[in-house]
TrEMBL record:
Residues 1-20 form the signal peptide. Residues 98-123 have a biased composition (Gly residues). Residues 124-158 have a biased composition (Acidic residues). Residues 85-158 are annotated as: Disordered. It comes from Yoonia vestfoldensis SKA53. Keywords: Signal. This is PepSY domain-containing protein.
């Protein structure tokens, strides 16, 4: 009997957190409404993600997020001109960031590309693999590893 009462007490203690918890979708919609977005459409993508398109008098905003993790995968917005159409703008990267350009687009999940091409080294093959390359970088053509092997697998005694 005592165990049953303890179980009921623990369940009642945890129930307010369950009731108060909002889904990620509800939280995003509430934030959009606080930012002045009135026309809010919610749909699902083919991959099961949630897509929210919202409008206010000067902006059109699209959010795509994973409902299981809450990760925002896309957050894109465009200004709306006088005709009610979205007008894309290209941000000038050389313009001062302090001079208020009001257009920007954010991405929740951005994957950076880029390569730090180029090797640094002594100009020769510095590994110890006996491949016939110049290990010392002295450009004499000798593999400089101390053996007679010139990197050639054939027998030179012919």
């Amino acid at each position: 009997m005592m165990i049953k009462q303890l179980m009921i007490c623990f369940l009642l203690i945890g129930s307010p957190q369950i009731v108060a918890a909002q889904s990620v979708q509800d939280q995003i919609i509430a934030q959009l409404q606080q930012q002045g977005f009135t026309q809010i459409e919610v749909s699902r993508t083919w991959l099961g993600r949630v897509r929210i398109v919202s409008l206010r008098d000067d902006l059109q905003r699209e959010l795509v997020f994973n409902p299981q993790t809450g990760e925002i995968l896309r957050d894109f917005w465009q200004t709306i001109n006088g005709d009610g159409l979205a007008s894309p703008r290209i941000v000038d990267p050389f313009r001062d960031s302090g001079s208020g350009g009001g257009q920007s687009s954010g991405g929740g999940s951005s994957e950076g590309g880029g390569s730090s091409g180029g090797d640094s080294g002594s100009g020769g093959d510095d590994d110890d693999d006996d491949d016939g390359d110049d290990d010392d970088g002295d450009d004499d053509g000798d593999d400089d590893d101390g053996d007679d092997d010139d990197g050639d697998e054939s027998d030179d005694d012919d």
